[in-house]
Amino acid sequence: MFTGEILPRDYGIVVRRRRRAIFLSPTKFALGLALLGSPDDLERRIQNYSNDAHQSFRTVKKVFMDSADGRAPNIFSGGRAIESVALYGAMYDAFVRSQKNKSPHHVTMTVIDDNHLGHYDASCDCGDYIYGQSNGFSIICAHISALALALDIDNRSGKSSSENLTGLLPSDRKKIPRIPFMYYSRNSDLGMTKILWDLFVGKKSQYTINKSLLSERPVHASWVYEAVRDFYDRARYEVLRQEEKEASYDRFSASVRTLVENLCESLQEQGYIPQRYVLDFKGTTYESVARRFRKGNIVYDVVSSRKLLPLIVRKILHYKSVEVWRGDDSVGEHPYSRRDEDRINVDDSTRRICDEHIIIPSMHEKLSKLVSHEVGREYEKVLREQQRD
Ligand SMILES: [Zn+2]
Hints:
By secondary structure, the protein is an alpha+beta fold. It has helices at about 25-35, 40-55, 55-70, 125-135, 140-155, 190-200, 205-215, 220-230, 250-270, 375-389, and strands spanning about 10-15, 20-25, 80-90, 90-95, 105-115, 115-125, 140, 235-240, 275-280, 290-295, 300-305, 310-320, 345, 350-360. Zinc ion binds next to helix 4 and helix 5.
């Protein structure tokens, strides 16, 4: 009913290095790995999956191939997925098979290694990458992921250039990219197969899959795990939002939207710097994507969704949580019922323990003047109902 909601496109880890930010997503790396797979790899993965699920190989294969065919017909077509790999100075240049289209994607990548932080300076001509550019991110898409994985696999397999994935000689593989996620540890890539199953057969969104994967420790490679624990928050969990759509808003929705914009503006006037999008109340019924503003160790998240009228979550960020891979809201109660007291919670984006305080604009001395009459009446109604519950 309430609007101003931000629709998510993906959830992943953003790694910052100076002014550059890369967005790393486990599902995109899984798709990249699937692109590289030979028919034998596919058979082995289906066999592993059917053993694990106690289903017949033939049934699993049919369901899997039928679903993949509709969504990414080229993904298991065999043959070289990466062609014309060349090294220009420190930059790799290659063509990577598209999941859907006939013509391959042109990918470039320079590996930057900085104090054990893996970082790529990369580009691709696919929709995902272009979308990221217009949002200030370098999205490591399935194609850049495929090139990174191919270099890593070739480096470890020791196969000759005629048999390996990139066709490069060891002397031409100058720098090997660090892979952020663990898919093929201990000779098993069942985890990766499960991701593909959820994507193709389960038709789950990348956002949903990544959110649940990234709340487990094993998927994080050790350098990513350390970057999340880093004192400067060099790796954070963030939401990639959908493109904003033109929609016809009724009057009430328009007032909610204006309120959200005014709240954001007032934070900026107070010197809070806009960051990107994060999750609040994660793992609860009220989970929402929020716009974040930060000054030092204080953040303000402006939340607005179908379930919540606009509210602000103020967090004073402290030390990193011990179980840094967990970002679920540890309070769990309805956000409105927490409004009068400070609570200790975990911040999903930085995985820091924080003092959390919820501000309802209509009840705030200064912010209440930003609330229109009709939205103000709705706040009263919702708060009354919530008190009754
Ligand atoms: Zn791409």
